[in-house]
Amino acid sequence: MTPTEIRARVLHRDRLVVIIDKPAGLPVHAGPRGGPNLELYLDALRFGYKEQPSLAHRLDRDTSGCLVLGRNRRALARLGRMFQGGRVEKVYWAVTDGVPKAPEGRVDAPLAKRTPGRGWKMVVDPTGQAAVTDWRVLGQAGGRAWIECRPRTGRTHQIRVHMAHLGCPLVGDPVYAEGVGEAFADEMRTKLGPMLLHARAITLPLYPDQPPVEAVAPVPGHMRRALEEVGMDGAAEDAFARRQRAEALAAAETAPADEEPVEKLKSRRGRGFEAPRGPGSGRGGFGGR
């Protein structure tokens, strides 16, 4: 990606955070073998700060959508407490092979890491860490379902494992749709095509005296057809995506460099942290229609 291309993926930006629309297929960190990863492009998102932003959480390589970056250490600490405390509302859209028997529900199934043969995977295990995912069906057709998932915990591969546990694995999941470990994931990606999981929206109650920061990521091209086949309104999504992209491009081209946050000066004086006021975030529907 060029600097202009990654800036065009900015969904929200203020003095503490940058939220971007992560593309599918790009890991957020370098793996053992190196290669392209999101951190290589973060310098283009400094917007006048001395340091580049850092990841406040992570998305799997094959997952697209909303990803939060903290712009300084205090922001990252604040975001870390929010994620750990379950105060961040996350909405994912998935297309699954199989349709749940109920229109909505909750998967409450602890997860643990296992290494069967080569590679590793997460499995449902009563002795594992607590993991909870709320879900509802937004559409269905031809044996597939469009499911909105709201994870209440943040375990590795949580939605992927929970949907498979429900009997509805994600379309294109290179690990849990086929029951193999991570060591075989590249081979399965070639066979199955892209995994259909998108981090659609995120809400951060970042500033106590302001409405929550909200961001919504347009549906990526590799999920478009599959979602339309199970009920998504393509015209409405197109209108939203055009508006979102135009706003992002305009902001990337015209926004001045930001000033360093006021909270750094306050911390040197020994005062408590007080979040500066940031601009209002963009709005967008989280729903499925």
Which descriptors apply to this entry?
289 residues, alpha+beta, Pseudouridine synthase, two-stranded antiparallel sheet, 12 strands
What does this structure look like?
With 289 residues, the protein is an alpha+beta fold. It has one domain (3-268): Pseudouridine synthase (2-Layer Sandwich). It has 7 helices and 12 strands. The strands form 2 sheets. Strands 1, 2, 3, 4, 5, 6, 9, 10, 11 and 12 form a 10-stranded mixed sheet that branches. It has a two-stranded antiparallel sheet with strand order 7-8. The longest helix is centred in the last third of the chain and has 21 residues, at 234-254. Mean pLDDT is 84; it is low at 180-184 and 262-289.
Quaternary organisation of the protein chains? single chain
Radius of gyration, in angstroms, nearest whole number: 19 Å
Total number of distinct structural domains? 1
Number of β-strand runs:
12
User: Which descriptor suits the 3D outline?
Assistant: globular
Give me the CATH architecture, please: 2-Layer Sandwich
The CATH class is: Alpha Beta
Let me know the largest β-sheet.
10 strands, mixed
The CATH homologous superfamily is named Pseudouridine synthase
Mean pLDDT: 84
Instruction: State the CATH topology.
Output: Pseudouridine synthase
Structure classification? alpha+beta
- The parts where pLDDT drops under 50 for at least 5 residues are 180-184, 262-289
| N-to-C series of helices and strands | HEEEEHEEEEEEHHEEHHH
**Alpha-carbon distance between the termini?**
31 Å
Number of helices: 7
Give the % helix: 10-25%
What portion of residues belong to β-strands? 15-25%
